[in-house]
């Protein structure tokens, strides 16, 4: 190698080191908090990889040890196996808690239901059949500002997220924010702790963010329990057998949407972060289902 070439190599290495040093000095730590433009607290999730889903043998063990209800034990093998490596290649911010009634009311008050720019094509089609003046529909706890907004369809959640400048999480983004690089079973660890989640024996929603010891590795709260959460992905049987490693977004199409995290009154099997619920199409709503928002980091 000639001198000029050597100099170029040294220069390239120096620049490389400078870039790496610069980026590590700039790096935001996992779990850092910010307020987005709407004043909602979000936590930082750095790009990374984990094992998504559950192996068949581990799932059988959970079914037994957690006394899974029959309907859940029958469905889970179709949707959450096999465990497989997934990488999120973008840093992102995810809401620290579920979207509250107070936050959702701002969307409605700001004319969110009348502004087509926030609605997907399918969302607009759904909305065209609704009487907008009564949306969002009243719900058991919708008079309580700090409770999660439930009784909203996937389409309403999607439009709210767009209004906030974000979107619904993909299932992989949601599950990574809940499980972390160690692929924990629950947000707080691998063992069920009833006091860490608003699930067992509950008959309605709780104010968001009450179960601090149930925080995930990035500090996201109520990932297990309170309300179950809409994510972007269509539900697809066997999807994990062929899903891509990087940034999977679910099956191309479907009839039902994946929902994550279990709900008040469900059970420890359903409260696992790998579990996904399998019953509801995007125009369905009830008092068990809410959501949170993701914003990609710039
Ligand atoms: Ca939840």
Automatic annotation (TrEMBL):
Keywords, ordered alphabetically: Signal
GO terms, molecular function: formylglycine-generating oxidase activity
SUPFAM superfamilies linked to this entry: C-type lectin-like (SSF56436)
Cited Pfam families: FGE-sulfatase
Position of the signal peptide: 1-27
Domain Sulfatase-modifying factor enzyme-like positions: 41-294
Record's protein name: Hercynine oxygenase
Organism: Maritalea myrionectae
């Amino acid at each position: 190698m000639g001198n000029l070439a050597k100099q170029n190599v040294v220069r390239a290495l120096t620049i490389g080191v400078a870039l790496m040093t610069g980026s590590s000095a700039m790096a935001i730590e996992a779990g850092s908090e910010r307020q987005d433009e709407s004043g909602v607290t979000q936590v930082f999730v750095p790009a990374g990889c984990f094992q998504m889903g559950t192996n068949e043998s581990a799932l059988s063990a959970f079914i037994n040890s957690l006394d899974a209800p029959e309907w859940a034990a029958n469905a889970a093998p179709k949707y959450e196996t096999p465990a497989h490596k997934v990488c999120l290649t973008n840093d992102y911010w995810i809401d620290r808690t579920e979207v509250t009634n107070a936050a959702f009311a701002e969307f409605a008050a700001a004319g969110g239901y009348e502004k087509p720019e926030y609605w997907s094509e399918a969302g607009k089609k759904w909305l065209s059949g609704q009487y907008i003046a009564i949306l969002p529909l009243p719900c058991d706890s919708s008079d309580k500002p700090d409770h999660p907004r439930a009784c909203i369809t996937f389409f309403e959640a999607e439009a709210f997220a767009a209004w906030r400048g974000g979107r619904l999480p993909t299932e992989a983004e949601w599950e990574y924010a809940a499980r972390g690089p160690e692929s924990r079973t629950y947000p707080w660890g691998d063992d069920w702790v009833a006091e860490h989640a608003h699930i067992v024996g509950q008959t309605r929603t709780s104010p968001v963010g009450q179960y601090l010891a149930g925080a995930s590795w990035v500090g996201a709260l109520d990932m297990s329990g309170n309300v179950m959460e809409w994510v972007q992905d269509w539900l697809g049987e066997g999807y994990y057998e062929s899903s891509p490693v990087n940034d999977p977004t679910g099956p191309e199409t479907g009839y039902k949407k994946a929902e994550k995290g279990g709900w008040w009154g469900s059970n420890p099997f359903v409260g696992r972060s790998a579990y996904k619920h399998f019953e509801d199409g995007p125009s369905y709503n009830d008092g068990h289902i809410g959501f949170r928002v993701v914003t990609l980091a710039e």
